[in-house]
Design brief:
Elements lengths: L1 H36 L6 H11 L5 H21 L5 H15 L15 H16 L6 H5 L7 H17 L9 H10 L8
């Protein structure tokens, strides 16, 4: 009986991991596709580079490319369960940067422009790293297992990148001035300039 419970629990954990990684990874890949290709009414690479500069990340083009790689690549790898922990680390990197720049100094709730959703995304990504590849992942199917040192080294790299980016001296505009350009860059043609 105890053996059956353990098997059922493992199967449920694998199913839960599948649900979390496909939802997080799919949405993050879509978010990256907005930046990379202008998909889903997104800003495309030029608009993303402009947004990065508005956040004080200059020059904007390399920061935009890093955001695209983290979101599109990290999201796709996460959704597929491939090369874990690289995909979730990409999600954490992108959302940590968003928290430290676009949502900086705001209350936590998204209704106030806060980092509520990036924090949830980072939490899910970390849980996926800790749980490892589920039995429905491509890692398990293909027998791929990356070395354990990748996670701590990746997290240190993320912290160093965010620290570097936020120490550059340029700060994003405070309050409402930031929201209008963000709406325009996010593909909303009805936003006021």
């Amino acid at each position: 009986m105890a053996r059956r419970r353990r098997q059922d629990s493992g199967g449920m954990s694998d199913a839960a991991s599948l649900v979390l990684r496909t939802a997080l990874g799919g949405l993050m890949a879509g978010h990256g596709a907005q930046k990379a290709f202008g998909a889903f009414d997104g800003p495309g690479p030029e608009g993303t580079a402009g947004f990065m500069e508005m956040l004080g990340l200059k020059p904007g083009k390399p920061w935009a490319q890093l955001a695209i790689a983290s979101e599109l690549g990290g999201g796709a790898l996460t959704a597929l369960g491939l090369l874990n922990p690289l995909g979730p680390l990409g999600v954490i990197g992108s959302m940590a940067m968003a928290t430290a720049t676009a949502h900086k100094g705001k209350p936590i709730w998204v209704t106030s422009g806060g980092a509520e959703l990036p924090v949830v995304d980072m939490t899910i990504a970390l849980a996926l790293i800790l749980s490892g590849p589920d039995r429905y992942s491509l890692d398990r199917l293909l027998g791929i297992k990356l070395p354990g040192w990748i996670t701590p080294v990746g997290l240190v790299g993320i912290l160093a990148t965010v620290a570097y980016a936020t120490s550059q001296g340029d700060t994003p505009p405070e309050g409402g001035d930031q929201d209008e350009p963000r709406e325009e860059l996010a593909g909303n043609p009805d936003a006021e300039s």
